[in-house]
Amino acid sequence: MFQKVLIANRGEIALRVHRACKELGVSTVAIHSTADTEALHVKLADESVCIGPPAPKDSYLNIPAIISAAEITNADAIHPGYGFLSENARFADIIAAHNITFIGPDAEHIRVMGDKISAKEAAGGAGIPLVPGSDGEVVSLEDAKKCAEKIGYPVLVKAASGGGGRGMKVAKTADHLAEALSTAKAEAKAAFGDDAVYIEKYLGRPRHIEIQIIADSHGNVVQLGERDCSLQRRHQKVLEEALSPALTPAERQEIGEIARAAIAKLGYLGAGTIEFLYENGRFYFIEMNTRLQVEHPITEQVTRIDLVREQIRIAAGMPLSFTQEDVSFRGHAIECRINAEDPKTFRPSPGEITYFHAPGGPGVRFDSAIYTGYKIPPYYDSMIGKLIVFADDRETCIKRLRRCLDELQLNGIDTTIPLFKDLIEQPDFLNGDYHIHWLEEWLGGADKQ
After folding, report:
1. Among the options 252, 291, 313, 400, which is catalytic?
2. Tell me: the pLDDT tens digits for 76-116?
3. Taking a C-beta distance cutoff of 8 angstroms, is the pair 114, 161 a contact?
4. Other CB atoms within 10 Å distance of the CB of residue 193
């Protein structure tokens, strides 16, 4: 096992990794920008190193500064968390070149899955069902027209690099294709430095289903069931559930085993998530995330498996502490992403938290690094906490979530707590009858009232 792990991240995920390390008897090093000097992960870590000014490019994305921090503290491993450099193959390569262990997959798998075109090719070759679309990059409008006519409108033009909804445009008819293509390429170039795009069939009202997998260096590959991440705004997940209210046990078993077999064939190492669109009983591959997901806690709740602990053990060369036969699913879990935003306009709301009280009781978990008096900086993602609720069944879980949202007190800033209070009262949510466009349609209707 490692002696010391440097955590190359901030906020709740940095604190989550710190806690897993401490429970394994491993010392931690927190890195931070000058804006995060008073952050909780900095206060709790065994050591901390300031690596630069607030801007991410000068701190949390500053690879030389992070490597230097690891070297001067004699850290023998680096955990990237999620976001920032977690899916940066160059970062993984540089870490390895400095004889430090990267707690994550091999750089080559990050590289392949980081490009959506090569990811589709790898997934298809491994037996994962794909959305009908172009064979690789679409270079010209003429190529785009041929592909769109073949698979049928509407189509989705997507950036090969990056994510988060940037570089994605829908062409409902042939008349919209030229604009969608040029806009997607321009957005992709601006956001990711790469204007390569491809085309997929646009599915009307699918659900977003993802399968959590984990694999060690001893040939063990396990799938840990699905999460339903269909409630999204601008392609950003807002609320997630495990297990999905839409899948039958047979569908759950089928897609889980497809994902597990594919990961084994690819020779993947560590934790990862295969994301699908699901419509009319069929699954279509979207992408693979070669890192820990924001929503990993709900899988931990229904499986009783600590994913971060297993990540660290795998990177240290140890086998998984369980087999596929040991995995069973119980109950239901829901996660709400609490953001420091106006609940109606979604405008960021940085500032000082004047009072904070977390909900408690059975089946309640609040993953966050905030505290009363903490000042939320304006430089980073607005998510400040994750409310995770677990119960024996979905109906009880929703009732528990309702109670916890009332108990959760955050004063001094605007938050999205009121949004969730309204959302979980909607009949479609209560019935589990929603899709990836549902939330935006509901928000649009709510805005007009």
Report:
1. 291
2. 999 999 999 999 999 999 999 999 999 999 999 999 999 88
3. yes
4. 9
Whether this prediction's pTM lies above 0.85 is answered by: yes
Three-class secondary structure of residue 327 per DSSP:
coil
Instruction: Classify each residue of 386-407 as buried b or exposed e, where b means 16 or more C-beta atoms within 10 Å of its C-beta.
Output: bbbbbbeebeebbebbeebbee
**pLDDT (tens digit, 9 = 90+) per residue, 218-252?**
999 999 999 999 999 998 999 999 999 999 999 99
The pLDDT value given to residue 449: 36
Note the Cα 309 to chain centre separation in Å: 18
For residue 186, what are its two tokens?
């321009």
User: Whole-angstrom Cα distance, residue 362 to residue 360?
Assistant: 7
Q: What is the pLDDT of residues 361-385, one digit of tens each?
A: 999 999 999 999 999 999 999 999 9
The distance of Cα 62 from the centroid of its chain, to the nearest Å, equals 22
Domain annotation for the chain: domains and CATH numbers = 4-103 (3.40.50.20), 132-201 (3.30.1490.20), 207-448 (3.30.470.20)
The whole-angstrom separation of Cα 51 and Cα 18 is 18
Could you confirm whether 111 is annotated as catalytic? Answer: no
Dihedrals phi, psi of 358, to nearest 5 degrees: -85, 145
The SS3 of residue 410 is: strand
